[in-house]
Amino acid sequence: MKQTQRSRRGWRLPALALFGLVVAASGAEAGDAFLRGGIIFHPTDIGLEGRWRANFGSDYAVNFTETVFVGFELQTSVYRQDTMGGNTATLVPANGFVNVKVKSSSLGVRPYGGGGLGLITDFVLLSGANDWNTEFGFHLLGGIELGHLSLELQFQRGFDSESSSTWAAYAGVVF
Predict the structure, then answer these.
(1) Helices within the chain (DSSP H only)
(2) Are 130 and 111 in contact (CB under 8 A)?
(3) Residue 135's CB: how many other CB atoms inside 10 A?
(4) Residue 79 forms beta bridges with which residues?
(5) Is the model more confident about 37 or about 2?
(6) Does residue 8 register a pLDDT over 90?
(7) If DSSP codes are grouped into helix, strand and coil, which group holds residue 93?
(8) How confident is the model over 81-113, as pLDDT tens digits?
């Protein structure tokens, strides 16, 4: 009977130690949340109409100096594109990434860089022929935070050999 009581209590100390480590490593803060809007551009496209995108997410410090961050980012937009049959398709990208960023620890101006892995997804809505395309991909990013203002440039590509590269420029807020 003593053995059963010990095994039931045995998980409490490691769980409490893990909880304390997580709180200490995070500085007991929720992280840096961000909301940005921007323009998508492809090297082969000249026009920028219908190429806006919004992204949001959060970064969490994983070291005591708060220079290495792990977080997530979700991206979406809605735009229309003409098809060969004379119809207009509605495209809804819905991308999700897990990111690692390195940010400067200086106050006021914080340059940063990083990258992420995740899913690049497109919902194509066309009467009678709806389609859903998804692939695993990556993105590289760099930017600067000026107080609560954030400016960022991203390069994004799927791992599929037929994927096209996408660039995006964003501006937004960090809170």
Answers:
(1) 2-9, 12-26
(2) no
(3) 14
(4) 91
(5) 37
(6) no
(7) strand
(8) 777 777 788 888 899 999 999 998 777 789 999
pLDDT tens digits for range 47-71: 556 678 899 999 999 988 889 999 9
Q: Which CATH architecture has domain 29-174?
A: Beta Barrel (2.40)
Closest CA to 110 of 122, 102, 118, 121: 102
E runs forming strands in 27-175: 32-41, 52-61, 68-76, 79-82, 88-103, 109-125, 131-146, 149-158, 166-174
Q: 39 phi and psi, to 5 degrees? A: -120, 135
Task: Provide the 10 A C-beta neighbour count for residue 124.
Answer: 15
Amino acid at 175: F
Strand-pair category, 52-61 with 32-41: antiparallel
Question: Could you tell me what percent of the chain has a pLDDT over 70?
Answer: 77
